[in-house]
């Protein structure tokens, strides 16, 4: 039995060459099960390498189970179960429908609601907080951490949302996780019964798809001038998902009468909960913050969900929910074995970022910044489109709704926007049931977070060409 060393592969470790050659011979059957291998010295002399080189190769094969050894006898080929080959093999190219195309955003302008601006984020202050975590919390960083998130951060969040949103809770009631969808999945999995969920239509399409994929019976309910049409909601709904402070995507702010109607609905039957998604409540213009729905709940039927994706940036992936005590007890019983999905370094950094006042200063600064861009975008749209546009001027959040008079269909508008390299979202992308085109009009969700003020005139010009 002869082995050779490829002198051209000088960059490859010699023992790796021997290892690869032997492994290949074993897997393709040239070396049979229980066949004795040359001694280390014999093979070293044959290949003109050191005994240590051969030893390293044999030891790696032994560790991986390709060979075995018998004391004072040597090394032998292991009896390996044949690998069944079925369908695609590793050396075949990936099917074309699975290949990803790297898309560049060069030349694009964005009027997306999904983005936030990081141009003014105080990274220096964030790094100072992060350095403090590295210095003071090395033990905590070396562990997985509490499955609900670090207690000191939950304390900080509890104080913050009590002050800014009126949320009534203890730190123990807060669950921190990597994103809204992760938290909702865990929440739905608490119940052993068939869940029936109600959502706003139009609403958050990713959440709707998540529930559907989990096998949840999802029912979509229309909106009226005050928000979700509560009188149309079925009596057997378990979870009703709403965005009362800034409805997504219409931007409606739910008045107190409808909020009370929602709370009364929640106690009119067993196992009814309202999930309040307060996704961008930090941004209000020319008005004070509107208290959360949870703040007026007296029967512990509201599950409050918040996120830092809008105030910091989406890539941070830090969200949280506040559970009523009975549900918290069930959550701990069922999910105590979960690991915290958030980045602990980021979570502890966020604690100090809030505690030092840096977060509040940042939100205040961004509120002013976004208000300027919001007004400028509205002004440019009104100047450009005149009487052919109607803007829903809800003074909250990072987007507003605009209705444009046009004979184009939603599909034509979306295609033309791609040609113009303008990122926009049409209302039909958020409708679950009635997705038909409106006669002679198109509704667009106009985001303004990640577009520069100086880029707004060009973005509106492109929009004019899209709709013209």
What attributes does this structure have?
16 strands, 4-stranded antiparallel beta sheet, Arc Repressor Mutant, subunit A, 15% strand, alpha/beta, globular, 468 residues, 3 domains, 8-stranded mixed beta sheet, Aspartate Aminotransferase, domain 2
Q: How would you describe this protein?
A:
The protein is of the alpha/beta class and 468 residues long. It has three domains: 14-77, Winged helix-like DNA-binding domain superfamily/Winged helix DNA-binding domain (Arc Repressor Mutant, subunit A, Orthogonal Bundle); 109-115 and 362-467, Aspartate Aminotransferase, domain 1, CATH 3.90.1150.10; 123-360, 3-Layer(aba) Sandwich (Aspartate Aminotransferase, domain 2). The protein contains 14 helices and 16 strands. The chain has helices spanning 14-27, 40-47, 51-64, 123-136, 138-141, 151-165, 180-188, 205-213, 256-266, 325-335, 344-355, 358-385, 410-419, 456-467; strands at residues 67-70, 74-77, 109-110, 174-177, 196-201, 217-224, 227-228, 239-242, 273-277, 302-307, 319-322, 389-392, 399-405, 422-423, 425-426, 441-447. It has an eight-stranded mixed β-sheet with strand order 4-11-10-9-8-5-6-7. Strands 12-13-16-15 form a four-stranded antiparallel β-sheet, with helices on one face. A two-stranded antiparallel ribbon has the order 1-2. A hairpin with a 3-residue loop joins β1 and β2. The chain is globular, with a radius of gyration of 30 Å. The N and C termini lie far apart (78 Å). The mean pLDDT is 92.
């Amino acid at each position: 039995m002869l082995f050779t060393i490829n002198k051209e592969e000088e960059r490859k470790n010699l023992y790796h060459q021997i290892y690869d050659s032997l492994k290949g011979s074993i897997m393709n059957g040239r070396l049979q099960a229980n066949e004795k291998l040359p001694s280390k010295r014999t093979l070293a002399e044959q290949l003109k390498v050191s005994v240590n080189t051969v030893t390293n190769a044999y030891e790696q094969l032994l560790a991986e189970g390709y060979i075995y050894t018998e004391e004072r006898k040597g090394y032998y080929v292991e009896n390996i179960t044949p690998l069944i080959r079925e369908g695609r093999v590793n050396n075949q190219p990936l099917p074309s429908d699975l290949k990803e195309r790297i898309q560049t955003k060069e030349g694009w302008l964005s009027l997306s609601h999904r983005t936030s601006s990081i141009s003014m984020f105080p990274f220096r202050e964030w790094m100072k907080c992060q350095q403090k975590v590295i210095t003071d919390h090395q033990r905590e960083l070396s562990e997985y951490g509490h499955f609900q998130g670090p207690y000191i951060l939950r304390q900080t969040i509890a104080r913050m949302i009590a002050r800014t949103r009126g949320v009534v809770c203890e730190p123990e009631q807060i669950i921190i996780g990597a994103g809204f969808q992760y938290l909702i999945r865990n929440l739905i999995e608490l119940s052993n019964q068939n869940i029936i969920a109600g959502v706003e239509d139009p609403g958050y399409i990713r959440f709707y798809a998540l529930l559907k994929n989990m096998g949840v019976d999802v029912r979509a309910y229309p909106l009226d001038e005050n928000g979700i049409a509560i009188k149309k909601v079925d009596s057997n709904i378990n979870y009703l998902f709403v965005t009362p402070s800034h409805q997504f995507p219409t931007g409606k702010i739910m008045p107190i009468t409808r909020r009370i109607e929602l709370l009364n609905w929640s106690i009119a039957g067993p196992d009814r909960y309202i999930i309040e998604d307060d996704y961008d409540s930090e941004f209000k213009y020319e008005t004070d913050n509107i208290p959360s729905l949870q703040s007026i709940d007296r029967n512990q039927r509201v599950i409050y969900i918040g996120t830092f994706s809008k105030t910091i940036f989406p890539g941070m992936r830090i969200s949280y929910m506040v559970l009523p005590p009975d549900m918290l007890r069930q959550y701990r019983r069922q999910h105590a074995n979960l690991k915290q999905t958030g980045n602990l370094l980021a979570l502890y950094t966020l604690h100090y970022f809030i505690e030092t006042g840096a977060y509040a200063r940042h939100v205040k600064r961004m509120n002013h910044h976004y208000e300027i861009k919001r007004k400028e975008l509205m002004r440019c749209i009104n100047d450009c489109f005149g009487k052919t546009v109607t803007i829903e001027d809800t003074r909250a959040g990072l987007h507003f709704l605009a209705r444009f008079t046009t004979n184009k269909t939603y599909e034509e508008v979306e295609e033309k926007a791609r040609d113009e390299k303008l990122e926009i979202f049409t209302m039909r992308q958020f409708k679950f049931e009635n997705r038909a085109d409106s006669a002679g009009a198109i509704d667009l969700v106009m985001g303004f977070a990640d577009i520069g003020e100086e880029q707004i005139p060009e973005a509106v010009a492109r929009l004019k060409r899209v709709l013209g």
